[in-house]
Amino acid sequence: MDGQIGGNTNKPRGERAPLDSGVPAKLARLDLSSNEKKAKKVKACSQDMSNLKLSSSLVAPPDKTRTVSSTDSSLPKKPHAFDFRFVASDDEVRKLLVAQTCDEHQDVAVISHPDGLSQANLVSRLSISEQGRHTLSSGKLFEGSQPLTLVIDIRKLTSNELSKFNDLLDPDNPCLYDRVSHEKRPLGEHVSLLVLADPEQLASVGRRDDAPGADFWRRINRPGNTWQFKAKTGNTPSGIDKVPPLLAELPPAENPMDDDTIVVIDCHLHSNWRQLLLGGPGVDQQGRIQHLPGRLELLKTGQRVILKGADWQDLAFEQTIRQMLDHRCFESNGKVCQLPDDVQFYRMPVRNDELRSLFQSLSKEPASQNPIIINPFNNHMNNYGAHDPSSPEELYAMMSELSNCLWFEKDVEDTYLRQALKASNALVLKSDELTTIAKEFVNTVNLNSIYELLDVY
Q1: CA 306, CA 204: separation in Å to the nearest integer?
Q2: S-S: 114 plus which of 103, 164, 265, 338, CB 3.0-4.6 Å?
């Protein structure tokens, strides 16, 4: 590359067709009336890219060959299918996901953080036998029988977090660390990459320290990029419609029936939806390592499944449900599991009185009309609330009543231990306070002089 963002936008190279930028005809255009300013920025982004110059120090010399691992070959490789687009809203992302998922012979996975690579069998597959023996095999990004599109949503990532994608976004040799071979391994030829960014991230270059750096823009600046979201014109009076909800919504019931015909899954009481729905490794009552089945594995033919209190703003969760419904299967314990016949899914919100009741269980004070529930989505608030148990037995009973609500158990346990330590005049420090003390200690101690006084062999 010449170190300049911009250039030709030819069709992607390679044998496979470029990623489809349209949507099925049954879906109308997206309503962007509330995002007109942002949409204009999206339209102008491809022009701005040509004006962004990269430092020559950040561009690899043309005569320098990149190497990944011993598995690389000196022979020229076919480039992986790749696309980059600016999107103005989550609904635009949903349009793209719907268009990609329509192909029943293609997998589509979404990640919005580098930690997402360790999920959904992307890098490795873990399977545990009934005898407790575990087998680790390479994930779908390395080996697969059907095409896989990995959608990387970087809209909320900082420059430091983006750097963890450097190997994955390498234009010459996209690769990742394989836990099976214990080395970096190129992506399989069946893998396509689609990177989504916010136009504000380009506009903030040079103005914000956490904006994506020149090295990132160099990696994604490739011939054939779509750059802009393209929605097809609808037939509605306005010509634009929002993406319809994935599941039909049921009104919140007083006590939804949970029996052989109706299954209610309380998503709002669990911090890990993958563990809840798809299962994962755990320990049985005899202390043996086993695969603990998720709720989807326990479904029976003809059941109605209600996902109660699910976070439909989580695009990775929504895409997992979308693909499960479209393909009628899901992955658990390292293998593909088929959904039983005639299983129907619905969504249900949590009633306000349920939220107040949950809040009352966390605090001795009367609950307000608009309680704040501390959960994984707002745990940046450094607040705690808990009933003060009078005995360990009461604490255990209180935690057991919540059906393995892990985040609640952790908050209650931390609060109880903190109160117990303070009652005995113990010094209670938070992790950031311990880090500060450790830094001050290291800065004030002459480690060299201490080393010289010690007998080192």
Answers
A1: 42
A2: 164
